[in-house]
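[Help] Beginner question about ligand-bound structures

Sorry if this is basic. My supervisor gave me a protein sequence and a SMILES string for zinc ion and asked me to "get the holo structure". I don't really know what that means in practice or what format the answer should be in. Inputs are pasted below exactly as I got them.
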Amino acid sequence: MQNEYLRHPLDPRKLCTAERAITVDVSMQAMQRLQKMLVSAEGEAHYALQFSIGQQRLLQVQGTVKGEVTLECQRCLEAVSQTLESEFLWGLVTSEEAAINLPRTHEPIFIENETLDLLPALEDELILALPLVAYHPEGSCKVPGQLTEQQPEVQVSTKKHNPFSALADLKKSLKSGQ
Ligand SMILES: [Zn+2]
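Answer (accepted):
No worries, everyone starts somewhere. Holo just means with the ligand present. The predicted complex, written as structure tokens, is below.
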């Protein structure tokens, strides 16, 4: 979904002074760095941002993000979807010195020429929210070793996609076609 806040550079001073609250939807496809860590680029992340002016005239943004991502289960290597949720507090700064002097509660986000490049900052928040490793819930991986004894072996082979059966079918259809 396209979003007006991503198409144009933002004037953070204006937004903070007006104490604007905005919501931004970002498709996973728009986040190239994040996409490299995902199994699928489907879905989007929803951000809510509250601009305001904090202590000592600090331009700040309080935000939340929620999004569903598809990761690789480290037990069975199949896709597993996970909902990521995170909160953040940005202090908008124009120099390294200002970044160092930020309260510890604030994460520095650099603004250049009075503009805020929103997308990379939003993408960083979702990357930070990624788990180190992803797993299916205990016992629900689709590998034989994870199934309980009660389940007969034959169920496994019918559930699992077998690349050789597809090949055999192809050979059969080629033969019958000749
Ligand atoms: Zn798994």
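A couple of things worth pointing out: The two ends are 49 Å apart (CA to CA). The CA atoms of residues 52 and 67 lie 24 Å apart. Feel free to follow up in the thread.
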